[in-house]
Recover the amino acids of this structure.
């Protein structure tokens, strides 16, 4: 179990890094730095940098201008994601060992491995379908799902630990906050994948108005290409405004739902829950501050990546509260050999 827990912790930390790198690649317009998949201009290791390599790459991909900087960003992200996939494969294999299955079901690690396989396919389609917004958004959600399942496994590996008291109101508030945060992450992914982050360049108003011109029908048409409407024309500014404005409304919903959860945690009078409430309020304030700063300062790369990582942290915190609200599991049963030894010693 010690090896399993170490691998699990390493995979969780790497998942956070992969989410951050994915945001960095997307926001620095390096998502198509490599026009093929899984290699880069046919290279499995590295990118074409020598003159003869670039000549061969330009002949193989004449429609693609070679930018080694963007290519390296994309490949570093792929290498980290591939390493994460190998760690999760190792976790899944360990979970199916007989001594492990006596303690925990391998269902969740197996599901996680399936999610990683789907993530790999989405990563490929992101390139082959030329950053189609639906695929890019699903890829982001897949990364967040991977992190969430790893966090759930981490908490499950600590089964038997004492948990703070809970109430029906706390469980309901936590579940509502989780649903709202997940919805907001999906909206944030839709904003990013449609490059609508600066559709409203001011705050708190949008384009100097409280009700700017918006086209929600075109904004949330899922089956369309990047920068285009369903009929193939250029997507309108009204549609981009609707996407951005929806994300702001989602932020308000998160403020209310997570704020209410924090209030319920404080009201319990439990010291552990009050610490979680302080953490929630800190993450919530940071996320709102980063969102406003991104608009006010025209989306600086560092703040935009930080906003993505902040969403991952807020999701992790709210998910952990939800899981800690569940009835505690019994401690892991001792292995059969240990039981026999204990029985023998008691007879002696």
């Amino acid at each position: 179990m010690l090896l399993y827990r170490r691998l699990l912790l390493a995979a969780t930390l790497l998942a956070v890094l992969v989410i951050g790198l994915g945001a960095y690649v997307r926001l620095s317009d390096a998502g198509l730095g490599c026009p093929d998949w899984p290699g880069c201009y046919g290279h499995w290791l590295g990118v074409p940098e020598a003159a003869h390599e670039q000549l061969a790459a330009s002949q193989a991909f004449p429609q693609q201008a070679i930018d080694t900087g963007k290519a390296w960003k994309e490949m570093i992200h792929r290498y980290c994601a591939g390493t994460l996939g190998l760690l999760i494969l190792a976790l899944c294999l360990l979970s199916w060992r007989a001594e492990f299955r006596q303690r925990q079901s391998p269902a969740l690690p197996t599901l996680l491995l399936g999610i990683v396989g789907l993530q790999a396919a989405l990563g490929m389609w992101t390139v082959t379908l030329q950053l189609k917004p639906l695929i890019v958004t699903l890829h982001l959600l897949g990364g967040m799902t991977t992190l969430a399942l790893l966090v759930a496994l981490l908490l499950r590996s600590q089964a038997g630990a004492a948990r703070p008291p809970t109430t029906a109101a706390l469980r309901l508030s936590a579940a509502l906050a989780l649903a709202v945060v997940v919805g907001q992450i999906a909206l944030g992914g839709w904003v990013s994948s449609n490059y609508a982050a600066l559709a409203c360049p001011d705050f708190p108003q949008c384009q100097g108005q409280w009700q700017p011109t918006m086209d929600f029908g075109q904004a949330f048409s899922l089956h369309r290409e990047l920068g285009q409407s369903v009929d193939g024309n250029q997507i309108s500014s009204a549609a981009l405004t609707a996407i951005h404005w929806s994300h702001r409304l989602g932020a308000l919903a998160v403020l209310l739902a997570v704020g209410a959860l924090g209030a319920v945690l404080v009201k319990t009078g439990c010291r552990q829950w009050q610490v979680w409430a302080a953490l929630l309020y800190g993450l919530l304030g940071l996320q709102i501050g980063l969102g406003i700063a991104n608009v006010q300062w025209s989306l600086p790369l560092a703040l935009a990546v930080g906003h993505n990582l902040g969403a991952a942290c807020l999701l992790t915190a709210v998910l952990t509260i939800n899981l800690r609200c569940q009835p505690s599991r019994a401690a892991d049963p001792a292995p059969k050999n240990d039981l026999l030894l204990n029985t023998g010693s008691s007879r002696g």
Observations:
- Residues 167-327 form one domain.
- DSSP finds twelve helices and no strands in the chain.
- Residues 95 and 106 are 5 Å apart (CA to CA).
- The longest helix spans residues 237-267.
